[in-house]
Design brief:
With about 325 residues, the protein is α/β, with parallel strands linked by helices. It has two domains: about 5-140 and about 275-320, Metallo-beta-lactamase, Chain A, CATH 3.60.15; about 145-270, Rossmann fold (3-Layer(aba) Sandwich), CATH 3.40.50.10890. It has eight helices and 19 strands. Helix 8 (about 300-305) links the parallel strand 18 and strand 19. It is globular.
């Protein structure tokens, strides 16, 4: 019997009773990474050692956590074995590969990035019969420029703001994006201050072996001449920065009018997710027999895959309207 895959409060695998990135408390759930929209206080969790460190920092308390290093196989019930592979999203982020003689192989990407980053492990592409993939940027308009080009633009923005007597503020998520940007600024020799939450995760990265250029925790008294890296929601800190020039660092920077929606002076498309071309490339590399898409433009990307001859469905969406019935032409068809 093939794998059964459902989407409710996360991806649910009823044949083995495990969730993948459940968003509410569950008995058993894999956690692919420690961003807040992928974690909860589960009774039992499997994740990488790095994700376990971030998880305890975000959700302190007692729980059963099985720390599974990349490439090591762990037996589950019902004759299923699991192996975690790097996802390239943030440090410690993983893909979950399940192997069963009865169901075949299944690969769940979680959030992933195929392009190599500066502060995360390189993404793996193991083969699988069934692929459950994140499709945040699953439309053709989301094609990111090279990261080196984007970082050069960020550095230029910061230099121009400082030359004008302003304080450049880079709005980045505290876990993952901030560390990527901080490492990207290494060759600029620009002085950097970071929000306390960013500093907390930078220290964990350093304990896990990642080096950064010099940085300091934010101090309003010594602010002159510094770049500030902080989360977008840090309104208290932002209110203490006079003459701030704010730039959002996000893949959504490619959207028309992004600076107005994000309420900033500039936006740079540096993302920790795969863009449209890399989503397609990932499917080509994994060579699945069936694909389930989830998150973002899941329905649209599933339709793109079907047009390329791939058996693909979007989880949690009304796919039946996209599937042609025998002898019935779609609206607008010849």
């Amino acid at each position: 019997m093939p794998w059964q895959v459902e989407y409710r409060k996360g991806v649910w695998l009823p044949q083995i009773g495990w969730w993948l990135d459940a968003r509410a408390r569950a008995a058993h759930s894999f956690i692919t990474h420690a961003h807040s929209d992928h974690i909860a206080r589960h009774q039992e969790t499997i994740c990488t050692p790095a994700t376990a460190r971030f998880l305890h920092a975000r959700l302190p308390g007692r729980r059963t956590v099985i720390e599974l290093p990349f490439g090591r196989t762990h037996p589950l019930e019902f004759g299923v074995a699991t192996t975690l592979h790097p996802a390239g999203h943030i440090l410690g982020s993983c893909q979950v590969q399940l192997e069963s003689t009865e169901h075949g192989s299944l690969l769940y990407t979680g959030d992933f990035k195929l392009r190599p980053g500066l502060a995360a492990e390189a993404c793996a592409t193991p083969p699988a019969d069934v692929l459950v993939m994140e499709t945040t940027f699953g439309l053709p308009r989301y094609r990111f420029p090279p990261d080196t080009e984007v970082i050069a633009g960020i550095v230029a923005f910061c230099r121009e703001a400082l030359a004008a007597g302003n304080t450049p503020v880079l709005l980045c998520y505290s876990l993952g994006k901030s560390q990527e940007v901080l490492r990207g600024l290494a060759d600029s020799a620009l002085p950097v201050m970071v929000h306390s939450e960013v500093r907390r995760f930078c220290h964990l990265y350093e304990e896990l072996g990642v080096d950064f250029p010099p940085y300091r925790e934010f101090n309003a008294r010594d602010l002159a001449g510094h770049i500030v890296i902080c989360p977008p929601h840090a309104s208290g800190l932002l209110a203490r920065i006079p003459a701030a020039r704010m730039a959002a660092v996000t893949g959504w920077a490619l959207d028309p009018g992004a600076i107005y929606r994000l309420r900033c002076h500039a936006a740079f498309p540096l993302s920790d997710h795969a863009d449209f071309d890399d989503l397609l490339r990932f499917v080509d590399l994994v060579r699945p027999r069936r694909v389930f898409t989830v998150h973002g433009f899941a329905r649209e990307f599933a339709a793109t895959l079907r047009a390329r001859g791939v058996d693909a469905l979007a989880l949690g969406c009304a796919n039946q309207l996209d599937l042609p019935l025998p002898g019935v032409a779609r609206p607008g068809s010849p």
